[in-house]
Amino acid sequence: MKADIYIGVMSGTSLDGIDVAAVRIDEKLSFIKAQCFTIPEKVRQDILGLTQPADNEIEKLGRLDIELGHLFADSINQFLQSAPFDTRQIVAVGCHGQTVRHRPEAGFTLQIGDPNTIAETTKLTVTADFRRRDIAAGGQGAPLVPAFHNNVFRSADKNRIILNIGGMSNITLLPADNSKAVTGYDTGPGNILLDAWINKHYGTSYDKAGQWAASGQVNQELLQQLLSLPFFTEAPPKSTGREQFHLDWLEQVIHNSHQHVSAVDIQATLLELTAQSIAAAINAENLTKPELYICGGGVHNNVLTARLSSLVKHSHIGTTEELGLHPDWVEAAAFGWLAHQTIKHLPGNLPSVTGAAQERILGGIYQA
Ligand SMILES: Nc1ncnc2c1ncn2[C@@H]1O[C@H](COP(=O)(O)OP(=O)(O)OP(=O)(O)O)[C@@H](O)[C@H]1O
Ligand SMILES: CC(=O)N[C@H]1[C@@H]2OC[C@@H](O2)[C@@H](O)[C@@H]1O[C@H](C)C(=O)O
How many structural domains is the chain composed of? Predict the structure, then answer.
């Protein structure tokens, strides 16, 4: 039987790799397989260099756009070498691109990784640039994945919350009552500050299972200063990124606190900040006895998830694996679904999440 297969490609704010997933979409979506590809260190540094104002930005951006286009295309081609399906069944690729700047308050967001290059190199139809139409319609352009969560994880009898802990964290509220709107927003940092701080001190890219954080003590004064950032109490719709949560911001708050806090205690404090900001967002919602399902790389940080489960009100806590989708592949699968929406001329955004005036067909199509 001929099936429609879509390839989702996600390279998120953590810069931990390029996730490629294949999904089959007929009446229902089913996951086929996924793989993560390395981002070379030089490319990682070039991306990071563009997330803050830099010299000669246009030239750097132009070059990196093409370089990432090739990197995404090579990852897709490699992924398809061991595909357990006939690649002629692929309808399209949905490529998120790499966010280098997200400034919804200034009316723009920028994801790069040239889709023309991907289409030329893979000989596949590519859909990309999913966020800017939502922004043009008055939305935040993010988070987009709640629409996918609504499609695959909503239950008719249980209220559910899906929590993504990536570089940033975002929640999706899925009421069982389908007359109620799905809502969701970015809650603030996911792994980004934990990654940045351990990288500064040990050169490693993340705090494995949260062990370094677990060996320190939370500094309450610093925690309160970090939590006083207006973003945490702003009403949704809201989204954020590296523009807000970066090492310079953290170091400025530490400096302004006028106290000496050891590096390990700062890591413990950052884990507590991450857990508390997520939990405050979840607990502020009035869904009755929600089930909480976590996805994103943060599920592997046992110390963070244990702390979260002691802070949040929920009737059940687990990962999206219980709902049939491994937590590492939810976002990549979502971009496969978004490609399907674009190709079928269906909306990809949820105005109740992003704040856009209406539903919109997202993204551009770059024909094979
Ligand atoms: N074993 C582990 N222990 C602790 N943290 C981990 C572990 N494995 C992954 N992580 C964290 O997960 C992060 C990657 O998460 P993920 O791939 O969901 O991010 P992303 O897709 O870049 O984010 P975003 O959703 O913001 O776009 C890593 O940077 C790391 O901090
Ligand atoms: C601008 C941008 O790239 N935002 C990402 C980021 O990573 C998590 C969170 O912040 C979310 O808003 C979004 O990603 C997912 C894929 C989304 O749009 O739902």
Answer: 2
Of all protein residues, the one whose alpha carbon is nearest to atom 3 of ligand 2 is: 99
- Report the alpha-carbon distance of residue 190 to residue 83 in Å, rounded: 32
The owner of tokens 């502020």 is 284
Residue nearest to atom 1 of ligand 2 (CA): 102
Does position 68 have pLDDT exceeding 60, yes or no? yes
What CATH number corresponds to the domain at position 212?
3.30.420.40
Please tell me whether residues 217 and 339 are part of one structural domain: no
Joined tokens for residue 342: 């674009």
Residue 126: domain span: 5-144+328-366
Q: What is the ipTM of this complex?
A: 0.98
Q: What is the mean pLDDT of residues 328-337?
A: 98
Among candidate residues 354, 281, 342, the one with its CA nearest the CA of residue 312: 281
Which is nearest to 288 in space by CA: 157, 172, 182? 157
Mutational test site, ligand 2, from 98, 99, 191, 231, max ligand atoms within 8 Å of CB: 99
Express each pLDDT in 143-197 by its tens digit.
999 999 999 999 999 999 999 999 999 999 999 999 999 999 999 999 999 999 9
- The pLDDT value recorded for residue 286 is 87
Q: Which atom of ligand 2 is nearest to the CA of 111?
A: 3
> What is the rounded (10 degree) CA torsion for 165, 251, 212, 194?
10
